Amino acid sequence: MRKVQSLADLQSLRDEFRAEFCPADVKKVQVKIAMATCGIAAGAKQVMNHMVEKSKELGLDIDFTQAGCMGYCYAEPTLEVSVPGRESVVFGYVDETRADEILTKYIQNNELVEGIIPVNYETTD
Amino acid sequence: MENMITLTIDDRQVTVPKGTTILKAARSIGIEIPTLCHYELKGQGVENRPGSCRVCVVEVEGKSNLAASCATNVSEGMVVRTNSLRVIMARRTVVDLMLSDHPADCLICPQSGNCELQKLANDLGLRDITYSGEQSKNKVEISPAIIRDENKCIMCRRCETVCNSLQTVGALTAVNRGFGAVVSTSFRMNLEDTSCVMCGQCVQACPVGALSEVNNTRQVMSAIANPRKKVIVQTAPAVRVALGEEFGMEPGSRVTGKMVTALKKMGFDYVFDTDFAADLTIMEEGTEMLDRIARFMKGDKSVKLPIMTSCCPGWVNFFETNYPDMLDIPSTAKSPMQMFGAIAKNYWAEKMGIKREDLVVVSIMPCVAKKYECQRDEFKVDGNPDVDYSLTTRELADMVKLLGVKFEDLPDSDFDKPLGESTGAAVIFGATGGVIEAATRTAYEIFTKKELGKVEFTELRGLEGVREATVDFDGTPIHIGIAHGLGNARKLLDKVRAGEAQFHAIEIMACPGGCVGGAGQPYHHGDFSKVEKRLQAIYEEDREKPIRKSHENPYIQQLYKEFLGEPCGEKAHHLLHTHYFDKSEKKFGI
Amino acid sequence: MSHIEINAEKLNIIKDICAQYDNRPSDVIHILHGVQGALGYLPMEVQEAIAKQLGIPVSRVYGIVTFYSFFTMEPKGEHPISICLGTACHVRGADQILEEFKRVLGIGVGQTTPDGKFSIDCLRCVGACGLAPVAMIGEKVYGRLTPNMVTGIIEEYN
Amino acid sequence: MATYNKHILVCGGSCCTSGNSAQIADNFKSTLAEKNLSNDVQVIQTGCFGLCDQGPVVKIMPDNTIYTHVKPNDVRRIVEEHIEGGKKVEDLLYVNPITGERVEDNKEPNKFHKKQIRIALRNCGVIDPENIKDYIAHDGYMALAKCLTEYTPEQVIEVVSASGLSGRGGAGFPTGKKWASSARAKADQKYVVCNADEGDPGAFMDRSILEGDPNSVLEAMAICGYAIGADKGLIYIRAEYPLAIERLKIAISQAEEMGLLGDNIMNSGFNFHIELRYGAGAFVCGEATALIHSMEGKRGEPTFKPPRTSEKGYNLKPTNVNNVETYANVPIIITKGAEWFSSIGTANSKGTKVFALAGKVNNVGLIEVPMGTTLREIIYEIGGGIKDNKKFKAVQTGGPSGGCLTERHLDIPIDYKSLTQAGSMMGSGGMVIMDESSCMVSIAKFYLDFTVPESCGKCTPCRIGNKRLYEMLDKITKGNGTMEDLEHLRNLSVVIKDTALCGLGQSSPNPILSTLDNFWDEYVEHVQDKKCRAGACKDLVQYEINPAVCVGCTACSRNCPVEAIKGELKKPHQIDNSICIKCGTCITKCKFNAIRIK
């Protein structure tokens, strides 16, 4: 990575990274998994590994990323799924079975599965 | 006046310099706020001010909590109440809590009568313990010189501060936390197994009975009561200027004659003076010093300088523990107390027809470490020590009190002869810089073969922690270093070790002020002005002595003629010199 | 008391860790972390070796070791079990979990099983309150515990 | 295979469930089946919407229509009018609480019902904490760049002061004032310290921020360094947080690699380096002076103030100490402005506060609410109410330094001042909800049990006083307390608060004083009636088998570890309370609820 030289330089880098990390319109399915201590303790890592494998099997092209705590400690592991053209949905209590359902039912077929957590906070942007 | 602050304490206005604490501001107008953890050796750079006992709390207008007066600086317009009901109730509760975790064996506690907690509980009128509960069960140990009863520790940290900051010995530390917190040693070991040098400054600092000296008065009284034993006593120079304090006399009162009278009343067979042996020490150490300097100047590479004094047992322990690489630097001369013992048991006893095992030598010392020194194996013959028991000034006072006499009204008596005769040079051993001054008085005359015009070397005196001076030996400059307090000693020694300082001779005393500030002296409770007054008294005593140079002591001259031969000669070497051990590997945490 | 010898291998580990911090006394807590991580615990000869490296009295090291609950002078079990007794875990029944671990392993808090496999300690809060009650075995966190899960968890390590 | 074009989300939170949301979901399913719509519209139960006072709640997607107070017999109307007819059911629509209008499309930015605003947590759960690019993509380091290029250090402090941000670690000291004090101090070296020694049992806000968004803390520390004239930052973090440490290390090295930390940052001539310092398990090290002594390699004992750490801190140099959450607020204050920040919150306290909501509440979690939110909103709307439909009893805030508040405090808008006035405190953000099964004397004892060994042992009132408080509470919970003990308990608590050296001791009696104030009857019951109404004090309860309910299945007697239960098969059993150790095993084993505590 190169060193940032100035405010303008940082701004252009930001725009470049935005296109990579949070483009205005999502073209690809994104799965974000909450991987703070509680999430990991509740099995988030295994769920993620499982989903990566399973999505390969299903031939799904998905971006998996880890994130910090989403705040739903009672429902760990939790993950957020963004499918192009749909509002993103947070699922809680995700074990391997539910992970499979999310892939085959929700992502592939727009069929919701158990464990939806309505987002109840406001973001700053 | 911008550096002055005006505030109101108990409705009285007071103006003090900025940076003054409420405690000191109150004291400046005679308002006493009780304290426990606060302990300051003024001028010695040591102040224990953790603000932790919470006894000195006061009410400051506008502050929601009570403030510790020892730790709160004054500010302009501050309004302080030191005696409101809120303050008094809080103070009582704090002391009540301390008592709830403190053994109630006051009647037989070594600190009874001197205990600051006992006094405080009494002053606050505590007659029962409201908040009783579980009491700490910690270690109690008896080392050769010091008794440690952790159950009595109130965590004031005074001992920890003197052990680490003043003395840099590092034997004591606070351990654990919460209710289990207590001042102890590494791994809760006995002091003897730690870096402790037995200097006893912790004992001097302890406000309660958690640290005290080993008490030998009972053994001494049994010996006196035993008709088969001859019991003789020697008294160190610093004792005579401090003992009076135990009887309500002014600090710095010289009570030499009364002390001798009291000792005779107690039944000692002979009352001698360690000062006699101090003169002897000067003969030996002075000769050794001149010899080393002369050989060094001639280019003898086997000789090392500086020569360092070796009278102080805390200091000897300190260098054996911390400077094992420099064991060949201190003088090999024994301390005056041990020289006295050696002469008494090997020369005087024979002369008097007393068998060694029937002679008991007692020393009265301003010192706690002497209790350890007299037990060292190299000072014993077939298990029989040259000095049997060493008592502190405080223990002597306790014994005097048993006589039921009014000490201040006792008549004066003289020491017995021959081991009771001494010079002014011996007296000043009790003050920092005194040993080296006494040695200089003799060395000068021997070296220059001229008589000294002025015997007082004021450039060697004072209370500065580390002092350096150059004395002109008739054209030859002799560089002298002096340190008192082991932290200061460490500073000086580290310089010498690093080759950053060149001295011909160095005097070191473990206790601040030298023996006048010894750990065995009456408790000064942090009032260092008492030590300064004792120091002045020492120099007065010197001025009044008819002979002020050790080599002019006729009894010393006679001793050499009759028995010892030459200073540092074969016999003198055998009886009056010793050797040192590397203790760094035997102890933990050096 | 004479020195307890510490073998050269251990001494080198200690020296290396101290050297990583240039033997700075101000880094003694990091050094203790490092040494405990490498050797498992901090017995007195280890503390002494550290003090020597740093040129400080061992009393200071000991004062620190006894102050911080993270440091231990006793060897822990191969699988140290830590029961969280934070508030969230407390109100969700952590004491019952602790009792069950004690009962199943037959040891008390601060003790190690005779075979050296397990030791039990309590800790204040893992910060995984959402999963309360929580226990840690090594660095693995077990959440939403009930007493009847305890035997199964221990079996994972047998 | 079905391809749904509509989804009906039925809230499955406990409030809605008790309002018969299961029946509602069933009705939707049967109605849709009846109309042959099962393959077009999916019905699913979800987690709590946080609209508990308006439940049961139903949301239709993708129309973003929220219906409130839905009853099972409303289902047909919704299906027929909305799903089939495409016309929304007006009288069930969610009402905008501000305008009073019914809202048809509840898609962003209509977020009136959302009680939370995520400022400190803005990136948590959003970005990849191990990739600085993701942080930069979310405007990361823009605030630092702005400060270095557009602001003087004084201006930075002005912005922070004007925002009204105050210390989130507990006491709420104004952050701008603190920075200004360090900036004023003259010294050759200054330090910026981040207090990440989160120690309150039941609190994990700081850990979550560090694990979810470590760069925001680094950026804020650099901004602080620029403002006060420090080039060195230290993060004092609990060794019990390995993941947070790992992510911080990654973030620091990535930031250094990109020149966002290090020398001559963005060619501004400003240097800033950050190092980690580990705690070692001492709660008291959360206190600033203790923390500094710990960083210096000493026992973590607090020392008296003044001097404040901003004048004489780490290595006796001016040191600014703030906690993680405080720093996490800083970058966005710089980018969005002081005015934006100060518009959130109450007159006394600006911005938001993160709480770790825990205990007997349905939605345990990490929440961030504007100052001024009420406890009721937090517990019932965000927290989804009390678990298992039990009765709310108390809420504990501020950890061992705080207190327990009750029903009558639920509608206080919370900020630093109001919580202190109510007898608790904000603290670092632990919030533990208790129901009727919690004994308040035991809770007070629990906190003292924590404080006693966590006291550093330095000052008398904390070292011995807290121990005595614990002993008195222990005596009371064992049924040996006297009314005099209650008096002593209060008196000693007051003196400890008044005389202790540091914040830990000065606040350690708070759990006792607040429970004495709010639950006096419960204390008296323990003392006079030897009774614990919560059934938590083992020495004060008796177990009893209700013979009318017991079927004699022997499950209890077989599982009793001390053989205190006797009885013949298929006949009611009895418990011998002289043997019983009140372990509770029988209660969990009994399938018939026949065993009760009295």
Q: Nutshell version of this structure?
A:
The complex is a heterotetramer of chains A (125), B (590), C (158) and D (598). Chain A is α+β, with helices and mostly antiparallel strands and 125 residues long.
Describe, in plain words, how this protein is organized in 3D.
The complex is a heterotetramer of chains A (125), B (590), C (158) and D (598). Chain A has 125 residues and is an alpha+beta fold. Chain A has helices at residues 7-21, 37-41, 44-58, 96-109; strands at 29-34, 62-67, 79-82, 89-91, 116-117, 121-122. Chain A has one domain (25-117): Glutaredoxin (3-Layer(aba) Sandwich). In chain A, 39% of the residues lie in helices and 18% in strands. In chain A, strands 2-1-3-4-5 form a five-stranded mixed sheet, with helices on one face. In chain A, strand 3 (79-82) and strand 4 (89-91) form a beta hairpin. The two termini of chain A are 27 Å apart. The relative contact order of chain A is 0.16. With 590 residues, chain B is α/β, with parallel strands linked by helices. Chain B folds into four domains: 4-123, Ubiquitin-like (UB roll); 140-213, 2-Layer Sandwich (Alpha-Beta Plaits); 227-275 and 337-409, Rossmann fold; 284-332 and 421-576, Fe-only Hydrogenase (Larger Subunit), Chain L, domain 3, CATH 3.40.950. In chain B, the strands form seven sheets. A five-stranded mixed sheet of chain B has the order 2-1-7-5-6, sandwiched between helices. Chain B has a four-stranded parallel sheet with strand order 14-13-16-19, sandwiched between helices. Chain B has a four-stranded mixed sheet with strand order 15-22-21-20, sandwiched between helices. The longest helix of chain B has 24 residues, at 274-297. Chain C has helices spanning 8-20, 28-39, 44-54, 58-67, 87-91, 94-105, 150-156, and strands spanning 79-84, 118-123, 135-137, 140-142. The longest helix of chain C is centred in the first third of the chain and has 13 residues, at 8-20. Chain C has two domains: 8-67; 79-156, Glutaredoxin, CATH 3.40.30.10. In chain C, helix 1 packs antiparallel against helix 2 (28-39), helix 1 (8-20) packs across helix 3 and helix 2 (28-39) runs antiparallel to helix 3. Chain C is 44% helix and 11% strand. The N and C termini of chain C lie far apart (41 Å). At the B-C interface, strand 10 of B face helix 3 and helix 4 of C. Strand 6 of chain A pairs parallel with strand 5 of chain D, so a sheet runs across the interface.
